[in-house]
Amino acid sequence: MTTRRMLATLATLILISTGNWMQCNAQQGAEESKANIALNSGEAYTPVHAFDTKRDAVKDIQAAIAEAERTRKRIILYVGGDWCPYCAQLVMLYRADPTLLALRDRRFITVYVFYGPENRNEKALRRYGKVLGVPHYFVLNSNGELLHSQHLLELRTAGSYSPEKFRSFFEEWAPGGKLGDRATGK
User: What is the pLDDT of residues 3-52, one digit of tens each?
Assistant: First the structure.
C-alpha cells in the first residue's frame, strides 16, 4: 500500500471515528440533560460526560462536589470540547482500554466542561487557574478545592496518549494515592 493511500485510509478512519464519537456524545448529552432536571428535583446524581456549550458548568461542578462528598471521591474537571482532536483521541484511548476508564470512574467524579470559542466557561473555571491547553484536567478534592492542574498533552508518548501514564496519574491523584495523600483536603 502506498504512503498516500495509507494516509487517506487513516484520515477516513479518523473522520468516521470522530463522527461516531460526536453522535454518541450528543445522544449522551441529551440523556444527561434530562437526568440533571431530575437531579434538581432531588433525585440521584447523574454524571456529566458530554461537552455542551450551553450547560451551566458552575451547577455541574456544584452537583459533582455534593456527590464527591457523599461518595468520598475526588473530582476531575475534564476541560475540552467536541472540536478538539486530542479529546477525540482520548475517547479512542478509553475505548481501546476500558479498564482505564473504569479506574477513572471508580476513583473520581468526572465533569466535562466545554472550553472553546463559543464558551470558555470562565465563571466556572477561573478559581482553578489557567487552562494550559485542551484537553486539561483539574483535580479537585471532595470539597471542590484544587489539588492539581494537568495538561493532558504531558500524558502522551510518541504522539499518542499513554495508558501507563494515565493509569499512574489516576492512581497517584485518587484518594489514598501517592500524591493524593500529600495534597491537602479530602
Answer: 555 444 545 545 455 454 444 454 444 444 444 444 444 568 999 899 99
Q: Which domains does the chain have, with CATH numbers?
A: 7-36+46-182 (3.40.30.10)
Secondary structure letter of residue 128 according to DSSP: G
Other C-beta atoms closer than 10 Å to the C-beta of 37 total 11
**Nearest alpha carbon to residue 124 among 44, 43, 65:** 65
So what's the pLDDT on residue 2?
60
Per-residue b or e along 48-60, where b marks 16 or more CB atoms closer than 10 Å to that residue's CB:
bebbbeebebeeb
Q: What is the bridge-based pairing of β-strands 136-140 and 74-80?
A: antiparallel
Residues 148, 128 contacting (CB under 8 angstroms): no
Cα separation, 113 vs 136, in Å, equals: 10
Q: Report the b/e string of 90-113 with b at 16+ CB within 10 A.
A: bbebbeeeeebbebbbebbbbbbb
The predicted model gives 73-80 an average pLDDT of 98
What is the structure's pLDDT at 182?
47
Q: pTM (2 decimals)? A: 0.76
